[in-house]
Amino acid sequence: MLEVSVNHVSFSYDKDLILADINMKVEAGAFVCLLGQSGCGKSTFLRLLAGLERPSSGDILVDDAPVMKAGLQRGVVFQDYGLFPWMSAGENIMIALKQRFKNMSFSERKAEALKRIKDVELPESVFNKLPKELSGGMKQRCAIARAFGIDPPILLMDEPFGALDAVTRAKLQDLVFDLWKKETENRKTIFFVTHDVDEALLLATEIFVFGQSPSKIIYNYSFKGKLKSDRTTMLDDPQTMQLRNNLIKIIHDEVRTKSHNL
Amino acid sequence: MKKFVMDRSGILLIFIGLVIAYELLTDVFGMLDPFLFRGLSMVIPAFGSHFDMLMKGLISSLGLLIPAYVMATFSGISLGVLIGSKKSLRKNITPFINAFSAIPAPLLTPFAIHLFPSFRSASIFIIFIGAFWPTLGTTVNAVMTIDKRYLENAATLEIGEVEKLLRVILPAASPTILSGCTIALKFSFVMLVVAEMFGATSGMGYFVQYYSDFARFDLVIAGFIFMAFILVGIMYLFDIMKVRMLRWTINN
Known about the structure:
Chain A is an alpha/beta fold.
């Protein structure tokens, strides 16, 4: 159970300030959606959480230990799937398992990879297929299988369904939510980047809205202690709809204000 | 077999067209200088009468080509990966790579003969140099331009250095590296002729050079054709290997 705290984090690329004074405290097991317009710095923030970039100032602590580099503690699911194209889907999962479970034999890794493939509702035959032989949705399922396979306490997902069609996206949203929810003990803390308000409302236990670059957190909403509606009841729930409208307005106002200032 | 031939019907047609054109220009109409351009009526018998010598030459040439090419590939890729993955090394060494690779390998012949204990080792060195620079240059470039996402992906999975090299860096860079290896293989053949110009007593390059000195251009042309067939055969095998290794790429 790992708690994540982000303290006064800023990040500049060359001389451009991308993120300015980001602060957040996230309890272990939360499903955090980072919401905002494209290009506002959400993905950059996720890269900082992953350890792929270092903050220009401030620090990111996971259970009081600073994030210094990328590692298995924070699994990442990229928008472009992040599978190695020269390895089969099975090998992609197995190489991750090999790093995570050093004592696991080859046959155990293979069995575990097959189990993970089945967990994400893919047929076993996918194991030997190269990523280029799979559809976008299947590739993302493999990436999710790999991410859950290494069982990281923290999972970072960078617009993982952004490139998928609406039906596949809905199925994968449910899949990720179910995989996360079914872990009753040591439930993963998920940071999920999206620009889709409905996706955030559906998945999140906590929402952080990022403003336009240089980005700050301009709004934060927590579902903690509140009854959360699901896909079927969401549209009929006045509170959720009010929150939805509010989030859309906040994002639009931010974009309008920043574009006026340019 | 039928499919194999059908797939290559275009190659066969062009080959037949070239043979007919050459025959028309030489034996039939005599439009090319008959002293230099011997017709097929002379070249084909030359093949038959010197086939043993050509085969002996092939074995001898492969004895130079294989060790030189293998060493060039191994050292070119190893050094290329090292230089390509270390920015500081790349920055400091690239000017020297550019400078040395610009020296035509044939000009190094006297130095090679002086430095190496035998003509054979000097010949291997000349072929090695011809194949080494293209392999090194393309490997440095290939490693340097690997998609950053693959390396980041490896970092998030904490893949160790050796496994990263073998299972991430080399496969990711392999399309460009293999292009370099193809160029290097062709260069090795060119260098083979240069390398067999001194000290050799047999070999495909030696065969061409030897009969050229005696103005036996029927045998020179037979030697050229033989070398071309061997190169095409080797390139074909190389391509099979390349397609297998690069089956993951989109255009394969």
